[in-house]
């Protein structure tokens, strides 16, 4: 890639002299139920030593009316501004292994050039594996482990999962295009999706972020601070359970979802064998049962006790708020030393 073309989307000061064989990515803008992908990456950046090695030019990539800057206002004056920015951070895991995190708002323009730039960055830094993370709303209960699913360019690197029937056509997000584009070059480019209870999809749902982190650690071998985010998950689930207990309707819906979850056959987690096509009578019976289930779920889909405003933000247990607030700017010259396990970094004296 031509040097001028490569530098055109990057802010001055980018440093690609290091090395990392893994890059994690999530860019806000497309689907991310429970703020799962964003929450996981925010937690990693706050919990581990990190250095910003590249910042993208927001004026060329970001629509500021869609991603408005945030202003601090006190004593009748504006005191600070936080501009939306896409960052590439270099982090160090608990075994001092370096890896990359690409995060920030999804670009609003120049997607093709952005993808070419990511390709060149990956090549320069020696990345061999990329992992995109996100959450998806699903008919699962919060009282059961969060299911995760993997997809990727190299089918041999994926675990056994339910067999897909047919083809889906869906609008692409930048994370999916990164996976596709890098996969075409031969990299092990994968995506990990956490299934988030549909009635909790609009708020912060740390259990999904914890499930994503565990899956990323298993896939990449990175030693990540899973314990901190699991503590936030336990706190959040306890608070959700208290609210469900106060609503008979909510409790009924959760019971239905639990029953469906528990009745899933073991074969559902591996490839299902081919079966003969059902008869018209069997299809009618299955459709009738599906409509009955859908009607029961739809009647309880709006749970007033479990809306976004009433859900607490689990910031007391080590995980930051995952809501749409501006990213904290960190401008340091080197990786900071660890100051105790997974504590927030403090300025150097």
TrEMBL record:
<dbReference type="Pfam" id="PF09754">
    <property type="entry name" value="PAC2"/>
</dbReference>
<feature type="compositionally biased region" description="Basic and acidic residues">
    <location>
        <begin position="325"/>
        <end position="335"/>
    </location>
</feature>
<feature type="compositionally biased region" description="Basic residues">
    <location>
        <begin position="336"/>
        <end position="349"/>
    </location>
</feature>
<feature type="region of interest" description="Disordered">
    <location>
        <begin position="308"/>
        <end position="349"/>
    </location>
</feature>
<protein>
    <recommendedName>
        <fullName>PAC2 family protein</fullName>
    </recommendedName>
</protein>
<feature type="region of interest" description="Disordered">
    <location>
        <begin position="135"/>
        <end position="157"/>
    </location>
</feature>
<dbReference type="InterPro" id="IPR038389">
    <property type="entry name" value="PSMG2_sf"/>
</dbReference>
<dbReference type="InterPro" id="IPR019151">
    <property type="entry name" value="Proteasome_assmbl_chaperone_2"/>
</dbReference>
